[in-house]
Design brief:
This is Guanylate cyclase domain-containing protein. One of its GO terms (cellular component) is cytoplasm. InterPro entries: A/G_cyclase, Nucleotide_cyclase, TPR_rpt. One of its GO terms (biological process) is cyclic nucleotide biosynthetic process. By secondary structure, this protein is α+β, with helices and mostly antiparallel strands.
Length: about 1350
């Protein structure tokens, strides 16, 4: 039956039909093209293999705290084990009907006369499976085991569905028996059902009998069965053409010849999610992931009196009805199977392409709609039961390469099945579905708990009832209520705006000026705390003697007619708590006394569910008039209740028009400041302190979004990275806390460790928590109530070995990002995924470099769509601007790249803050104009990045790194080529392999530094100082000194005016940080370390201390791994490597500098000490040795003065610079300690001066003298201070025109300001301060 191979197109078609056939059983592959529904009867043998340990394995991977670890490893583990089992079944001629989670159902069809032989052959297959796959240990410690049930008899195949989607199910007594047989088995057993035992060759199979059971347990088979597998396989599928036999192909259906009609027929049985990957010729491994989804099990129990044809028709009707409900609510039917004498549908919400943020709500609505449909349309139905759960599960293609299916495995899948069976006749759901649906409590009724097999502590179980069970009027509770002792953190600006607007409104109304604002809109992204802000507004308004009518709409309220109007009217008339219509009427009449208004109350009958008599006037109205009169009457009611003048009833519901209204104030919520994140974390956990590592992790990963912070904390706690412990006494405050006390806020703390763990769980579910309070002070909380001796202070601590940089994105947050990505077209998704490889901020030039197949038109259309979808924004857009892009298409394509051009900045003399920036358009005339873009949310970027397989990431990272190696590494306005002086020379240029000059070039990203193409706009280099050649700075004449300084600064500003914006921050975002990530992705440790250190130094240079510390912690992990012989990071190339002392010392020095900047003096000193030890310039620890060392350094200082030194080589110079940096901090630390160590400070500064002399660089020598100047003032050495001051005047006047010189002058002016202030000369200090 073979056929000669044709062209490549035919080959592709052949591969496609084989790929499709791998997802469906032979029972479907070889089906006739009949009209559905239909039933086909046959005899056969069923084998049901149930694998234990899959759920535990899935949970272990889902709880793994290692970033990038989970789906790939889990897929390999699952498919390795299942593939081995399926190989035995396929080799025995079996047909895999389906993969039911962690179970496999296989079928052999045969004539009734040969069924005895076939049973013996299937028993032998089961024994082979137990011998080879009975017990298997996995790499993560879980043990997989299998138990098998076998049944035989008459079966029926039911084909159902519609023209778009079809489903199949096998029904019959044998199906029920095989599941009962498997239920009697334990791991390692093979059980024959009663009917199989009756039909088999009993003389050939040794068995053990069960007490009171007709089923038997197989021990062994006495002789090989006579059933011929080869002949059986040849007899299958003779109605379809196949290719010749292929070595190693154990399934005949994998050799199908191209057949367009059959291909289209088979596609109807496969989920759209899988078909998209097959059509795109992408590996199915792309679909394997740990994914948050909502699972819906629907079970139909029939009366049992119906014939097979009637049951087939009932299942067909149910399949069509369920399919419509699923499609309507963005869900999918995954599979249909018989379960516990009923038909069960497994439906999934949140799969790739269907993800929605409100999928739990959609799932509940679909489940309820399915129940109503089945109960109404299927007469033979006894009961319909639905179980709904939400949570992380493994979603992916499971099985053998020749026969596999897309399925879901996990604890939540098992729980949904158990809910379906233990709560019959209703829609039941778990706690997570109830919580994430965000539906009012009126939709749910809590159910009594039941013991369920394999389920431990499922939490509260709810029945979803919809509002048809309870009629409510005006009951729309807030999803977030302001808790008494929980202060809203980080929103002081917003609350100040609200208070100011309310005051202005009340004053304007009282004076009748009509100049006040009457609408305040707070906008922001998901998770920014809008609900908490609203709760705070409601709380403050109610305390301020204002009438408050809070109203929050749920997703399902959209479909309820007049719901918003009903709710507001009910709140206005205070009838929301009334139990019936008579009580509502009584309350309304007590507030409306005017006869003309009472006459119109009947207009509210349908809205408020009352029964006022219809007046003659109203009865004569037509529908249009009645609708208009109802609107006018409602406005009249509002004005009457507010005791205000009537207003026009015309209103425009469009958000954009409301935003642009002259009396509307719109305020965009921004991310929280880093300092607030620590306070928020303490508030969420109910602790008095969190570790610095946790604070840094939250600042970096939450990006200031409160909800992200909450979910990250939950992830840390559940993955056991952190734990909560009790402290009895408060620790000593740090030095910086004594000097700079922080603000206090109210934060709740629990009363015990046990309750604190419950607190976290409740908080994550949005439940009530305790109301103990304490006062937060930076990272520390002190109890307010000192008399409460029984109160326990709790702290959050990190577990040993916790690696925060490996924490994956919490699945709840990942679900939000996936919901956004799944709305995009395939080509748009590819662009987003490639941009995610580049980094958070990226350029159009680089994007097109790694996507060369994108034409200019296609690129423009794709990027326009992504801007409109809110995926990308212009990378030059200022953060403070109001974002109107989501409500007006005009603003969706806003681009600010042109405003970065120097030509525009030259002519701008006005204040930057007062200037209104008018954006251009990112796309004009079909051409893309925006040069720099960024992700609107980092969450989408990180999620899109995780969608790549590891090998694919490596290739893309290598391409990106090679591209960026030729680009800028420092902006044109700054003096040096690297942020760390001599870094490349110290580690070896060959290791880094940087091409060309590191200064910014014309070939750099156009939008990043477009200034290079307009050199005439540059003027002098930033920082160039123009010191008159004959001018000298005199210390005695303050006026003359200030006049000369004025001239210097004016000359500098004249040049800097042409190039006043340093672009180092853009170089950091677009080049350095991406380079570090790319080399990590490639696995090149030396380059990754180099760029991580450069990024850290750049962050410190730009005062991004928290970001710098996060990179330095990552560097420390790399160094620790290398030292212990482990892989530096997950993607690192194999082989041992050594890190040079310079980079180790640099890491310690940079970390010490960050710690010093953030006030952690003791920790900073330890870092500098380690750095100096590695640099070969350590400070003695004992006073005696320090005194001897000081004498030596002073003698060395005298000797160096008399020598003419040569400039050291670059590598040696780099070491000297690092020594100077460390020593400069060491003397300051010694001086500011609680007990100053002046001798040690004197030694450090003397060593610094000698090291500066060794560099033979004038700027380093001046820098050391500046430190001496400051040191002498700190020690009270007035004469020495004046001497150094005169010396500095002379040296600064002789410096060349460079940025370093100007920087040194600014340091000198600062010193003068501090010294004059300490001496009591306030006027002089102010004058110097202005210049500085």
């Amino acid at each position: 039956m073979g056929k000669v191979k044709g062209d490549s197109k035919q080959g592709d078609s052949k591969n496609k039909i084989s790929s499709i056939a791998a997802h469906v059983p032979d029972l479907v592959v070889y089906s006739d093209f009949r009209r559905i529904p239909y039933v086909e009867h046959f005899n056969g043998v069923l084998l049901f293999a149930d694998v234990s340990g899959f759920t535990a394995l899935t949970e272990r991977f889902s709880m793994c705290s290692k970033k990038g670890y989970g789906a790939d490893e889990l897929t390999r583990t699952l498919n390795s084990y299942i593939g081995d089992i399926v190989s035995h079944i396929l080799a025995a001629g079996g047909d895999i009907l389906n993969y039911a989670g962690d179970a496999i159902l296989a079928l052999w069809t045969v004539e009734r006369s040969r069924i005895s032989e076939l049973i013996s052959m299937v028993v032998k297959c089961g024994l082979n499976i137990q011998d080879n796959c009975g017990v298997r240990e996995t790499d993560v410690g879980s043990v997989l085991r299998v138990k098998i049930g076998i049944s035989a008899g008459k079966l029926s195949k039911v084909i159902m569905g519609n023209e778009e989607n079809r489903y199949f199910v096998v029904i019959g007594r044998a199906v029920d028996e095989v599941r009962l047989a498997e239920g009697l088995a334990v791991a390692g057993n093979i059980i024959l059902s009663p009917n199989a035992w009756e039909l088999c060759d009993r003389a050939n199979i040794a068995v053990d009998h069960f007490e009171d059971e007709r089923a038997v347990k197989v021990r062994y088979i006495k002789r090989d069965p006579t059933f011929s597998v080869e002949k059986y396989m040849e007899s299958v599928g003779n109605n379809v053409e196949h290719e010749d036999k292929i070595q190693g192909c154990v399934r005949k259906a994998s050799r199908l010849m191209p057949n367009e009609e059959r291909e289209k027929f088979l596609q109807k049985y496969i989920m759209k999610t899988v078909l998209q990957k097959i059509d795109a010729n992408q590996p199915l491994e792309y679909l394997s992931e740990m994914r948050p989804v909502t699972i819906v099990f629907v079970n139909l129990q029939f009366k049992g009196t119906e014939a097979d044809a009637e049951q087939c028709l009932a299942i067909h009707v149910a399949a069509i009805g369920l399919s419509k409900q699923m499609v309507k609510h963005h869900g999918r039917i995954n599979k249909v199977f018989m379960f516990d004498k009923g038909c069960t549908f497994l439906c999934l919400f949140g799969l790739p392409g269907d993800k929605r943020e409100d999928e739990s709500t959609h799932a509940l609505q679909a489940a309820y709609g399915a129940c109503e449909f089945c109960q109404k349309e299927i007469r033979s139905l006894r009961t319909v039961s639905v179980g709904v759960t939400t949570g992380p599960v493994f979603c992916g293609v499971v099985g053998h390469k020749f026969r596999h299916e897309y399925t879901v495995i996990g604890k939540k899948v098992n729980l949904a099945a158990r809910l379906m069976m233990h709560y019959p006749g209703m829609v039941s759901c778990d706690r997570e579905t109830h919580h994430y649906s965000r539906l009012p409590q009126a939709y749910f009724t809590e159910l009594p708990k039941k013991a369920m097999k394999g389920v431990r502590d499922p939490g509260p179980i709810y029945q979803f009832t919809t509002r048809k069970v309870r009629i409510t009027v005006g009951q729309s509770p807030m999803s977030v209520e302001r808790q008494k002792e929980y202060t809203l953190l980080g929103r002081e600006k917003e609350m100040e705006l609200y208070s100011r607007m309310v005051k202005s409104f009340l004053e304007g109304r009282a004076s009748d000026t009509h100049t006040y604002n009457n609408v305040v809109i707070f906008g922001g992204g998901s998770g920014y705390g809008k609900s908490h802000l609203l709760a705070e507004v409601v709380y403050r308004a109610s305390r301020g003697s204002l009438r408050v009518m809070p109203c929050e709409l749920a997703k399902t309220d959209i479909h309820q007619q007049n719901y918003t109007l009903q709710t507001l009217l009910a709140l206005l008339l205070t009838v929301e708590t009334c139990k019936n219509f008579a009580e509502r009427e009584k309350v309304i009449l007590s507030q409306i006394e005017q006869p003309d208004m009472r006459e119109n109350l009947c207009l509210l009958n349908e809205i408020l569910l009352v029964k006022f008599p219809v007046s003659n006037r109203v009865s004569l109205m037509d529908n249009e008039t009645r609708e208009k009169e109802t609107k006018d009457f409602i406005m009249q009611l509002f004005c009457h209740m507010a005791q205000a003048e009537p207003v026009r009833s015309e209103c425009n519901p469009e958000l954009l028009r409301l935003l642009r209204a002259p009396r509307t104030v719109y305020h965009k919520l921004t991310s929280l400041e880093p300092s607030v994140i620590a306070q928020l974390a303490c508030q969420i956990l109910g602790v008095v302190r969190i570790p610095t590592e946790v604070e840094l992790f939250l600042v970096e990963r939450s990006h200031g979004v409160p909800y992200y912070c909450e979910e990250l904390l939950k992830s840390l706690y559940l993955s056991r990275m952190v734990y909560i412990s009790e402290v009895e006494e408060s620790e000593e405050c740090r030095d910086v806390e004594l000097l700079f006390p922080g603000p206090s806020v109210e934060v709740p703390i629990p009363s015990s460790r046990t309750s604190s763990e419950e607190e976290i769980r409740k908080k994550s579910m949005g439940l009530d928590t305790q109301e103990n309070t304490s006062s937060l002070k930076c990272r520390k909380i002190a109890a307010l109530d000192e008399s409460a001796s029984e109160r326990l202070n709790l702290v959050c601590l990190t577990n040993e070995g916790a690696k925060f940089h490996q924490i994956p994105i919490p699945l709840t947050l990942r679900g939000m990002a996936l919901a956004h990505l799944d709305q995009l077209l395939p080509n748009e998704q590819m662009v987003v995924k490639c941009a995610a490889i580049i980094g958070h901020t990226f350029t159009t030039q680089m994007l097109t470099h790694i996507l060369p197949e994108l034409t200019e038109d296609k690129l423009n259309d794709t990027l326009v769509s992504l801007f409109k979808a809110g995926t990308f924004v212009c990378g030059s857009q200022p953060e403070h601007l109001v974002d109107l892009s989501l409500v007006d298409e005009k603003y969706m394509l806003s681009c600010y790249c042109d405003q970065q051009a120097p030509a525009r900045r030259v002519d701008e003399d006005e204040d930057e803050e007062d200037k209104e920036e008018t954006p251009g358009q990112a796309s004009e005339g079909g051409m893309w104009r925006c040069d720099v873009m960024r992700f609107r949310t980092t969450l989408v970027k990180e999620t899109a990045y995780d969608l790549w397989l590891q090998e694919q990431r490596r290739d893309f990272h290598g391409e990106c790194a090679a591209y960026l190696l030729k680009r800028a590494h420092r902006c044109v306005h700054c003096p040096t080529d690297e942020f760390v002086f001599g870094h490349k020379a110290a580690v070896g240029a060959a290791i880094i392999e940087i091409s060309g000059v590191l200064n910014v070039q014309v070939s750099c990203e156009k939008a990043l530094l477009d200034i290079q193409k307009n050199p005439e706009h540059l003027g002098p280099r930033r920082g160039t100082i123009m010191i008159p050649p004959k001018s000298t700075l005199e210390s005695g004449d303050v006026e003359k000194t200030l006049a000369v300084l004025d001239a210097i600064i004016q000359d500098h500003q004249q040049g800097a005016k042409l190039s006043r914006w340093c672009c180092c921050d853009q170089v950091l975002e677009v080049v350095l940080i991406p380079m570090a990530r790319h080399w990590i992705g490639v696995g090149d440790v030396p380059k990754a370390l180099y760029y991580l250190l450069e990024s850290s130094a750049a962050c410190i240079y730009l005062s991004y201390n928290f970001r710098a510390l996060s990179y330095l912690n990552e560097i420390q992990t790399i160094l620790d791994n290398v030292k212990s012989g482990r892989s530096a990071f997950d993607t690192a190339m194999k082989g041992r490597m050594r890190v040079c002392k310079f980079e180790k010392a640099l890491a310690y020095r940079l970390k010490g500098q960050v710690l010093f900047n953030t006030g952690q003096i003791k920790e900073a000193e330890a870092m500098f000490t380690k750095a100096l030890r590695l640099l070969g310039r350590r400070l003695p620890m004992t006073p005696v040795i320090a005194a001897v060392k000081l004498v030596y350094e002073r003698m060395r200082k005298l000797r160096l003065r008399s020598q003419e030194l040569e400039r050291p080589e670059e590598k040696r110079l780099a070491f000297l610079h690092e020594q100077i940096n460390c020593l400069s901090f060491m003397w300051k630390i010694s001086c500011i300690k609680r007990v100053p160590q002046i001798d040690r400070a004197m030694l450090a500064i003397t060593m610094e001066q000698n090291t500066a002399t060794l560099t033979s660089q004038q700027d380093r020598v001046v820098f050391s003298i500046l430190d001496l100047h400051r040191f002498s003032q700190s020690c009270g050495q007035e004469e020495e201070c004046k001497r150094y001051e005169r010396q500095l005047f002379e040296l600064l006047a002789q410096l060349p025109d460079t940025t370093e010189a100007y920087t040194l002058i600014s340091h000198f002016i600062r010193n003068l300001c501090i010294i004059r202030l300490c001496d009591g000369h306030l006027e002089e200090a102010i004058q110097y301060g202005r210049q500085g």
